[in-house]
Specification:
It is a single chain. This protein is α/β, with parallel strands linked by helices. The chain has 2 domains: 327 residues, ANL, N-terminal domain (Rossmann fold, 3-Layer(aba) Sandwich), CATH 3.40.50.12780; 106 residues, ANL, C-terminal domain (GMP Synthetase, Chain A, domain 3, 2-Layer Sandwich), CATH 3.30.300.30. The strands form 6 sheets. A 9-stranded mixed β-sheet has the order 2-1-9-8-10-11-12-13-14, sandwiched between helices. It has a 6-stranded mixed β-sheet with strand order 5-3-4-6-7-17. The radius of gyration is 22 Å and the shape is globular.
């Protein structure tokens, strides 16, 4: 069933129930259903429908959700992007996937008969960008079944029901937060959507919320002033034992999960005992060449179809329905706890975004004077990691930091831009001649005097 149909049903059964609350207003389920119907009629008038793509770049989260649901109701595939992107950037992030409509302003209401769409499980019902992917575009596309059929499992694991008030304190361009918001509406609960900068109002929001979706580095803020909070659903990285203990002291139940935009849910920890397969998921950890850990492979109904326009990316499949994005884990057997050890491709988790180092390196390698470059994550107390660039200079002096930062601003999104810059006479390399990323990170952590910080 399309999520929009869930909204229509909730509007008929509980019309006065608050559906969404954002920075610029709120809508009951009755009003949300009315707005979605009118917006869907507008999109249909633009030629959208099954098999078409609707690009959505709206900063106001309630208006973004109206557009998502309207596209869903019309049978199209919504693709949520960064609201700061201009049309030229949109053409770069998905050049092989033309849009039937580009929504960069709130959709108008068009009167008329109710819109109805007869869905099929294999319909492409959702598309989202992997975080920080504009260096080499990767928009993940999902079937309707892979997108919505996992909703009941999450509801059961986290105990989320129609009487809950669910705080979603992050931008909907993130698949983590987008899933949380859409799941909330499918459930019939109330979604609190503060938008991109919720820190100033977090305390007030927690006096209303019973459930929150967030990334690990935000959990301490929530535990410090839990308000009415009952459950925290945490995704994006592993939780350490101290976080579980702090949540217990605060009286908050934590449901932590591991997954990826391409794989959706893979494993879940609902009691602090460790990650185990999410319902419907099979897991294998296969030996990886030249690595002490193996690659995590998953087989489930929740896997994405792939990337729009057949863009290149970390998703790989075999002939038996298994898929991986190269994440690493300790050896694993069915029935045991899955111990994930990070991304095999060196991806950086920073403030809830996933930055692929090669994307950043591709842009910065074009700066005159850069012989080569390695991008890694450096530990940060609140963001988890910050993007760090280590430049191998072609001459004795590396390019000015101002030039490097200007290039980053022009070619990279905010999450991708390095916050720390270093230079080194020569980068350590593997036997194949490639920069040895892990060795660079280790040398930087050890304070290698040959790696100097750029002022």
């Amino acid at each position: 069933m399309p999520v929009a149909d869930h909204v229509m049903r909730h509007a008929a059964e509980r019309p006065s129930r608050l559906a969404v609350c954002g920075p610029e207003g709120e809508l009951t389920y009755a009003r949300l259903a009315e707005r979605v119907q009118g917006a869907a009629r507008h999109l249909l008038g633009l030629g959208t429908g099954p098999g078409t793509l609707v690009a959505i770049g709206l900063a106001e989260p309630v208006e973004a959700l109206v557009a998502v649901l309207a596209a869903d109701l019309a049978g199209a595939t919504p693709l949520v992007g960064d609201p700061t992107w201009d049309r030229e950037r949109w053409s770069r992030v998905a050049p092989a996937s033309p849009y039937a409509a580009h929504v960069d302003a709130p959709l108008p209401y068009v009167p008329g008969p109710d819109v109805r769409h007869e869905p099929r499980p294999g319909d492409r019902a959702w598309a989202c960008f992997t975080s920080g992917s504009t260096g080499r575009p990767r928009a993940v596309v999902r079937s309707r079944a892979s997108w919505t059929a996992s909703f009941p499992h999450l509801s059961d694991l986290a105990g989320i029901g129609p009487d809950d008030v669910v705080l979603v304190p992050g931008p909907l361009v993130s698949s983590l937060y987008a899933f949380a918001a859409v799941h909330t509406l499918a459930t019939g609960a109330t979604a609190l959507l503060p938008g991109r900068r919720p820190s100033r109002t977090l305390g007030d929001l927690l006096t209303r919320a019973t459930v929150v979706h967030l990334v690990p580095h935000r959990l301490p803020d929530v535990l410090a002033r839990p308000g009415r909070l009952r459950t925290a659903v945490v995704g994006g990285a592993a939780l350490d034992p101290d976080a579980w203990a702090a949540a217990g002291r605060a009286g908050i139940r934590v449901v932590s999960y591991y997954g990826a935009s391409e794989l959706s849910f893979v494993a879940v920890d609902a009691d602090g005992g460790g990650l185990r397969p999410f319902p419907g998921v099979e897991i294998e950890v296969r030996p990886a060449p030249d690595r002490s850990f193996g690659e995590v492979w998953a087989r489930s109904p929740w896997l994405a179809d792939g990337y729009l326009g057949d863009a290149a990316g970390p998703l790989r499949r075999d002939g038996d329905g298994w898929a991986t994005v190269g994440d690493l884990a300790e050896p694993y057997r069915a029935g045991e706890v899955l111990r994930v050890r990070g991304r095999g491709d060196g991806a950086i988790q920073t403030g809830g975004a996933t930055v692929v180092p090669e994307d950043v390196e591709e842009v910065l390698r074009k700066v005159p004077g850069v012989g080569d470059i390695v991008v890694i994550g450096s530990p940060h107390p609140s963001l988890g990691s910050v993007v760090t660039a280590v430049i191998e200079a072609e001459r004795a002096s590396p390019p000015p930091r101002a030039l490097l930062e200007a290039t980053a601003r022009d070619g990279l999104d905010t999450a991708q831009r390095p916050r720390r810059w270093y230079a080194v006479p020569s980068l350590p390399r593997t036997q194949a001649g490639k920069p040895a990323r892990a060795l660079v990170a280790a040398r930087l952590a050890d304070g290698d005097p040959d790696i100097r910080r750029l002022a």
